[in-house]
Specification:
about 85% helix, mainly alpha
Length: about 270
């Protein structure tokens, strides 16, 4: 398993407890080393160490902000992907009016199934099966368009339909990419934990030089950093966690397609 997969598939609970352990162990190690150093050199003060700790914590805050911004950007891109796909499907459904029967009804049946699949795959976690069937539907739609192009001379109206179909295919590929590959790289996660360990080691060393021990402070630091790490991982994960992309636009589209289908059936003799 690659480094990227390790962090992308790790349970949030494991990330939380791993961060707690990294922070507490690093502080304790730094504390003991600081005490030993103070015994060797009683005249050593924590003034220069405080400057170093401040610089390291500032750098750690920068890396946290950078990682959080990357996760937030990925989350926003996935949210916009849902909106773009809903609009593209709605446009394609309308432009199916340019296609003669019986292909028109068949195309619209495919589109209603496509929308159901996108919602089912997101809500029930059946993502892989949903993607496979969605791609089969898109291939079937393209095959129908190719058959129509062979049987009928090309027109502006059929061209508009093909253009809308192309848009749906492109947005589908974009959403798959956003959900599967556009994630925080494992090397950034590793660097984040490395910097966290070093920074907490410096904090513990300052405690040792100063001759103080703040158990409550260490626990608060551990819990705070752990919560931030889990929040970043939740934002970066498209299929797990509490922070999920809203499917309201896709749900609204599904209702619209059902209403239009009912109206079409009632209008038919």
């Amino acid at each position: 398993m690659t480094l990227d997969k390790v962090f992308q598939q790790a349970p949030f609970e494991a990330l939380f407890f791993l961060t707690v352990l990294v922070v507490l162990i690093a502080i304790e190690a730094g504390l003991r080393y600081g005490r030993a150093s103070r015994k060797r050199n009683p005249c050593e003060t924590d003034a220069p160490i405080g400057t170093l700790v401040g610089a390291m914590l500032g750098l750690l805050a920068f890396i946290l902000a950078f990682t959080f911004g990357m996760a937030g950007s990925n989350f926003e891109a996935r949210r916009m992907g849902v909106l773009k796909e809903s609009n593209a499907i709605g446009t394609l459904y309308l432009r199916a009016d340019f296609i003669p029967q019986p292909a028109r009804s068949e195309i619209r049946d495919f589109l209603r199934e496509y929308v159901r699949l996108r919602l089912t795959g997101t809500e029930l976690g059946k993502t892989e099966a949903s993607i496979r069937r969605s791609e089969e539907i898109l291939d079937a739609l393209w095959a129908r368009a190719a058959v129509l192009a062979d049987k009928n001379p090309p027109t502006v109206l059929t061209g508009l339909f093909v253009q809308a179909l192309n848009e749906v295919i492109d947005v589908h590929s974009e959403r798959v990419m956003l959900g599967q590959t556009k994630r925080i790289p494992g090397v950034i996660w590793l660097s984040l934990y490395f910097m966290t360990g070093l920074s907490m080691l410096a904090v513990g060393y300052q405690f040792g030089i100063d001759g103080t021990r703040s158990v409550l402070g260490a626990i608060i630091l551990a819990l705070t950093f752990s919560a931030v790490i889990v929040l970043i991982a939740d934002l970066d994960s498209p299929r797990r966690g509490l922070i999920k992309n809203s499917q309201d636009t896709m749900l609204a589209l599904q209702k619209q397609l059902e209403v239009k289908s009912s109206q079409t059936m009632m209008a038919e003799p």
